[in-house]
Amino acid sequence: MKIEIDESRCKGCNLCTVGCPYRIFQAGKKSNMRGVLVPILDRPERCTNCRLQHLYGRVLCGVCQLTCPDQAIRFREETKGETVKVAIEY
Predict the structure, then answer these.
(1) I need a surface site. Which of 24, 43, 45, 63 has the fewest CB within 10 A?
(2) Domains of the chain, earliest start first
(3) Can you tell me the distance from the alpha carbon of 64 to that of 18, in angstroms, rounded to the nearest whole number?
């Protein structure tokens, strides 16, 4: 799984930066074409939903997606051959 932010739907409320227990979102630094500071992903490989959903066969976290009022956050499957970076923190 891979997490994506749809910049055309995001309004820059930063609820994802506050709600994520793994702190993979940071407040945006540059604005998009609508003038909205879209959050950026900071080490998304720490997301347990992205890493372990295939292993457990169910959604494990998804707090960012649930708290987004504009439904701008989504998870998608990686394409074949796409590199996957995994981070394990103790």
Answers:
(1) 43
(2) 2-76 (3.30.70.20)
(3) 9
